[in-house]
Amino acid sequence: MPYNDTGLIELSLMGKIYKEYRMPGNYHHDMVEMPDGNILALSQDFHTDTVEDLVVLLDRETGMTLRTWDLKNILPQKGPGSGSQSPRDWFHCNAVWYFEKDKSITVSGRHEDAVVNFDYESGKLNWIIGDPENWPAEYQKYFFKPVGDDFDWQYEQHACLRTPDGDVMCFDNGHYRSKNKAKYLKNRDNFSRGVRYHIDTKKMEIRQVWQYGKELGATFFSPYISNVEYYGEGHYLIHSGGIGWEDGYASEKLGAYINPAKNPNSDICAKTVEQKDGVVLYAMEVDGNFYRAEKLQPYHDGENLVFGDGKVIGELEVTDTFDTIPDLPETDELVDSWHQVRIEEDDDRIVFHGRFERGSLVMLLLKNEKETRGYFINTAAVSYLAMCSGAYLEEDDRVIKLHVSKRGLKGTYEVRVLINDKKYATGVSINCD
Questions:
Q1: Would you tell me how many other CB atoms lie within 10 Å of the CB of residue 184?
Q2: How distant is the alpha carbon of residue 39 from its chain centre?
Q3: From edge to edge, which strands make up the β-sheet containing 193-200?
Q4: Distance from C-alpha of 167 to C-alpha of 148, rounded to nearest angstrom
Q5: What is each CA distance from 252 to 176, 242, 246, 258, in whole angstroms?
Q6: Is the pLDDT reported for residue 394 higher than 60?
Q7: CB 235 within 8 A of CB 215
């Protein structure tokens, strides 16, 4: 944890890496190619107190960031949260889509139960699909009014997309299925589905025109991950990737935290369905939880393999330091082998690995003649309703992997580790010139 460390990798199915894009705020969840070949991707700004709330435009050739859209400037961070929202992970953007016809960007915010559309040029909010309950009064005008029969809002959704005629599709995970805590549904009583909405942006009306999965109930329920794909009118893929069971019922845990080895009455799986004109072409179930499924063609008209070296483009951001470094004496002792301390060096970063007890005070220190830089390592338990910003179960050791960018570092640094009341030398030096 977290599940994102650097950026994007472009590679072939043969494993040949063409480009690695390194990004200041790392890459997470989703990206789309723009009509001009540039890349619209999801990221974050590590100099703020929040995560997974930034959309960036990357230059396809250089990897540099051309534009950013900060969702904190578009949406409220308090009030309309889902059952999984936290102040740090207030939006949890998990999908992005560019619609060329009206030059707009659509994103999915799991932790606001909202599919949000804004203008590409101005960043101005256009509309929101979702249950309007608990949203501030000034945002109510951006919501649609449901029309027609058989309508359900989506909750904690993933994988929003726009069809060629402008309809909106997503995977409606349905987690909690309410904005009102008193009405939250247990997972065993819930459902997940693929859904398609037709929207009228002039009348601000919304109609549900297709869904698949509600009829399957909890057997198709995924509280997290999952996706839908549009292959043509009436031709869809629906992937429920995070199914988990315990003691005969849909588990209240995320599947990533279900351990069949410890509980033989538990299991996890993913179910993928391809449907055309209402007919199921195939239904596949596999062991394990998987973020997304996608149908690939075995043959294509493009290049099959290009030889030569891959390229590393773009750059990481300067890693934030911790303001206060405890004044502790340096010990001659070695770090206990239980901690499994390991230090790796890459062209543009230092990677620190270690294992620590819950609640330990731990810092990575880089020291040279001019300065000492301290990097705080959090060993506290945090909510695992989403896993983007680091999560530990109460019974687990804190196994960590910390990336420190070499940007802003100059000279040779000795690496030290502060653990509780002792400061240890590692014998490792890193040259950042």
A1: 14
A2: 17
A3: 145-146, 205-212, 193-200, 168-172, 158-162
A4: 16
A5: 10, 12, 9, 10
A6: no
A7: no
CA distances from 393 to 241, 257, 362, 389 (A): 22, 8, 18, 14
**Residue positions counted in the chain:** 433
331-375 pLDDT tens trace: 999 999 999 999 999 989 999 999 998 889 999 999 999 999 999
Please tell me the distance from the alpha carbon of residue 33 to that of residue 328, in angstroms, as a whole number.
51
CB-based contacts of 59, cutoff 8 Å, min separation 6: 38, 65, 66
How confident is residue 27, by pLDDT bands cut at 50, 70 and 90?
very high
Region for 428 from its dihedrals, namely left if φ exceeds 0, alpha if ψ lies in -120 to 50, beta otherwise: beta
At 282, is the secondary structure helix, strand, or coil? Answer: strand
Name every residue whose Cβ is closer than 8 Å to that of residue 192 and which is 6 or more positions away in sequence.
171, 172, 173, 174, 213, 220, 221, 222, 226, 240
Pick from 220-229, 309-318, 334-343, 374-383: least confident: 374-383
pLDDT reported for residue 427: 93
User: What's the rounded Cα separation, in Å, for the pair 378 and 376?
Assistant: 6
Give the predicted TM-score (pTM) of the model. 0.93
Residues 198, 202, 204, 205, Cα dihedral to 10°: -40
Question: Could you give the CA distance from residue 428 to residue 367 in angstroms, rounded to a whole number?
Answer: 11
- Cβ 219 vs Cβ 240: under 8 Å: no
CA dist 316 and 348 (Å) reads: 8
Pair 143, 128: CB distance under 8 Å: yes
- Rounded to whole angstroms, the Cα distance separating 64 from 188 reads 46
If you search the block for the tokens 């292959």, which residue do you land on?
231
Query: What type of residue is 46?
Result: F
Asked if the peptide bond before residue 329 counts as cis, ω within 30 degrees of 0, the response is no
**DSSP SS3 for 256:** helix
Side chain identity, residue 328: L
pLDDT at 175 over 60: yes
Distance in angstroms (rounded) separating the CA atoms of residues 34 and 36: 5
| Residue 89 in tokens | 């992970």
Q: State the Cα–Cα distance between residues 308 and 96, nearest whole angstrom.
A: 32
Cβ within 8 Å of residue 56, ≥6 positions away: 23, 25, 40, 41, 42, 43, 65, 67, 68, 69
Both tokens of residue 349?
């970063």
The alpha carbons of the chain give a radius of gyration, in whole angstroms, of 23
Label the pairing between strands 422-431 and 330-331.
Answer: parallel
**Pairwise CA distance, residues 256 & 137, whole Å:** 37
